[in-house]
Amino acid sequence: xxxxxxxxxxxxxxxxxxxxxxxxxxxxxxxxxxxxxxxxxxxxxxxxxxxxxxxxxxxxxxxxxxxxxxxxxxxxxxxxxxxxxxxxxxxxxxxxxxxxxxxxxxxxxxxxxxxxxxxxxxxxxxxxxxxxxxxxxxxxxxxxxxxxxxxxxxxxxxxxxxxxxxxxxxxxxxxxxxxxxxxxxxxxxxxxxxxxxxxxxxxxxxxxxxxxxxxxxxxxxxxxxxxxxxxxxxxxxxxxxxxxxxxxxxxxxxxxxxxxxxxxxxxxxxxxxxxxxxxxxxxxxxxxxxxxxxxxxxxxxxxxxxxxxxxxxxxxxxxxxxxxxxxxxxxxxxxxxxxxxxxxxxxxxxxxxxxxxxxxxxxxxxxxxxxxxxxxxxxxxxxxxxxxxxxxxxxxxxxxxxxxxxxxxxxxxxxxxxxxxxxxxx
Length: 426
Fold this sequence. Notes:
Blueprint: E1 6-9, E2 15-20, E3 26-33, H1 47-54, H2 66-73, E4 77-82, E5 87-94, H3 98-111, H4 118-137, H5 144-152, H6 167-170, H7 175-185, E6 191-197, H8 201-212, E7 238-243, E8 249-256, H9 262-275, H10 282-289, E9 293-301, E10 308-316, H11 322-340, H12 343-362, H13 364-378, H14 387-393, H15 396-406, E11 412-419
Parallel strand pairs: 2-6, 7-11
Antiparallel strand pairs: 1-2, 3-5, 3-6, 4-5, 8-10, 8-11, 9-10
Helix pairs in contact: 1-4, 3-8, 9-12, 9-15, 11-15
């Protein structure tokens, strides 16, 4: 069913996207800010992610953690996330709470700095650093993706670091840094508001104008530093690590066209085919046939202002030869280009991506987020209704060409893990 979103722009620059859905008495609200880790100042990696946490620590009229408490007390749910190119705050609540949630979002978009204190900054810095330890530093292979980003992009590139940031940079963040960052990026002309649910678009627009209409842009927009969006050879093609790990592993990052381009959609299908359907692909070859690994996956990390990346992740069995693993990966890629993209295989990959897309849109919160993304990156929220048609229109030749161009060994950065013989970090 077409979503038919309605888009309006407020005088302060905020864009409102409303999609009516009367299947349940709930409403999803997504506040999308066009700021991510690519906007972290030099020497302050992780600041955008830290700010995501600080936005829950109170604002002009709301106490620390009051935003979450108000929504959960009403039976709703709220959370946030930070990516390379955006920070999103989303809530799913009973429809009667829409006015309250809009007020809460406007209060922190306009007045988060009123509640910022040295204590709240130190507290959330500790939370963010602990998150990093739990998700990356103290997990086997946990820093692999961080290392691959550094291998894929040259020094100074804004997509070279994870949104989590580096601990040594986070330690230097001060209140003045936060104030400058907030005024630069947390402003209505850099924000989009997606609302999906059993609501009337005109009523929503009036409520948004009431709560957000008085918020002015803070500072003139600064032009982004131009970086090439076409795939380029990796900055560091290979790196080998010896450290504590359950077994050997091979990880890789292939550069793809930016997300949303026709060539990018074809590359997505090629990556899906490489990862494997029921009787083909990396999982079948490495896990079932050659029995070299217990896991073999490929997936796409979509980026819009830089080449997207295909993430290759093979966890080999103890004692497996990683040279044989890499040889099998290359052979599967060659097979895909030579004879693996058939009409039948393509239809299967298209069906898989179609299912994944519809599953995502089935949740009103994810739908609100995708509407904001479509409007933010392409200026056309209604384009969300066209993705399945674009996928279905791709041909065998287009997908085979994408596989040959973007999944070639020379287009990837490779990281290998060899376990330390003594079980200690090397």
